[in-house]
Design a protein that fits this description.
Distance between the termini: 34 Å
Helix content: 25-40%
Oligomer: single chain
Largest sheet: 9 strands, mixed
CATH architecture: 3-Layer(aba) Sandwich
Number of strands: 13
CATH topology: Rossmann fold
Radius of gyration: 19 Å
CATH class: Alpha Beta
Number of domains: 1
Number of helices: 9
Structural class: alpha/beta
CATH superfamily: Vaccinia Virus protein VP39
Strand content: 25-35%
Length: 318
């Protein structure tokens, strides 16, 4: 790119981990994921498929408003190091759940309504194919889901030629109780980790994961609490993920300066983790409500990233 990066590194030892935390300014215009205005409007009567909702070139953080499939299909190929996707689970069909001791509806919005098994799977094929296109040859993707959708995701990945690397079982120690008393209480989500294809040579920071796990190989069952009130003070997304989960995923599979993409960014927990860990970030979202929430959270995280005590706290939490 020809841009220089001025770097001031600080070495932080936390919980037995010797970890370099960079506090530097990333060069401007370093986000390789790119869509020109001409490309975005071509064949669409001059109307762009997206708008840039938020752009912080100093810290390489960007939010795009639009349909992720349309955006990804017109973006630069082989430009993204890692994708985290939390797609619709298609659960908004009149069910109930428990929140704060009260019975509440699980309906999250039109975007989460099921169109039937075949249409849901077709949708998964389309967005996963679009994601595969923008991943770098050795890039990887993490996809979160419950039993309602994760098996379709896994099958779609196999159909498209992804190489499935791991399934992470995220155990939520503070999961809500089951009100019907007809099933076991749901307290886990599955996060599938896959490489772009069978030839990919994916990156995995095995050493760091082992150090975080007190010198033992890290297993695929992770006990991490659901987002706490501190992470929801600006508002919340109905399927919001904890920063600790995204932090661990990113530390395991990316390096500083890598580009992380979230095609269903919601409240941008992915962006918060990326900003704190000095990764570049692009988030895509359709709803203004969640884009507004994302901007607030991103701005706060960018202010916090220079704080040594904050970084020590996040690494210790892992």
């Amino acid at each position: 790119m020809g841009d220089k990066v001025v770097s001031n590194r600080k070495t932080v030892r936390t919980a037995g981990i010797l970890k370099k935390v960079a506090s530097y300014r990333l060069p401007e215009n370093t986000i390789e994921f790119y869509i020109s205005e001409e490309t975005a409007s071509y064949g669409n009567n001059g109307k762009k498929h997206f708008t840039v909702y938020y752009d912080n070139p100093e810290h390489s953080a960007r939010l795009l408003k639009g349909d992720c499939i349309e955006i990804l299909n017109q973006a630069r190929e082989n430009s993204v190091d890692m994708i985290f996707a939390d797609p619709p689970y298609f659960l908004s069909n009149g069910g109930i759940t428990c929140h704060a001791g009260k019975m509440v509806s699980v309906n999250k919005g039109k975007w989460d309504k099921s169109k039937g098994v075949e249409e849901n799977h077709k949708f998964n094929i389309e967005w996963l194919k679009a994601c595969q296109r923008v991943l770098k040859p050795d890039g990887t993707i993490w996809v979160s889901g419950t039993t309602h959708i994760i098996y379709s995701i896994g099958f779609a990945m196999q159909e498209l030629g992804y190489k499935i690397l791991n399934d992470i079982i995220w155990y939520k120690r503070n999961a809500p109780p089951n009100l019907s008393c007809k099933y076991f209480t749901h307290s886990t989500e599955i996060v599938l980790w896959a490489a772009k294809n069978q030839k990919s040579k994916h990156y995995f920071d095995y050493k760091l994961m082992k150090e975080i796990n007190q010198g033992k190989q890290m297993r695929n069952v992770w006990e991490i609490s659901a987002p706490q009130s501190e992470e929801k003070r600006f508002g919340k997304h109905p399927t919001q993920k904890p920063v600790d989960l995204l932090t661990r995923l990113m530390l395991a599979s990316t390096k500083e300066g890598d580009l992380v993409l979230d095609p269903f960014c919601g409240s941008s927990t992915t962006g918060v983790a990326a900003s704190l860990l000095n990764r570049k970030y692009v988030g895509i979202e359709l709803e203004d409500e969640y884009l507004q929430l994302s901007v607030k959270r991103l701005k706060e995280s960018l202010n916090k990233k220079e704080s040594k005590s904050f970084m020590e706290e996040k690494v210790s939490a892992l």
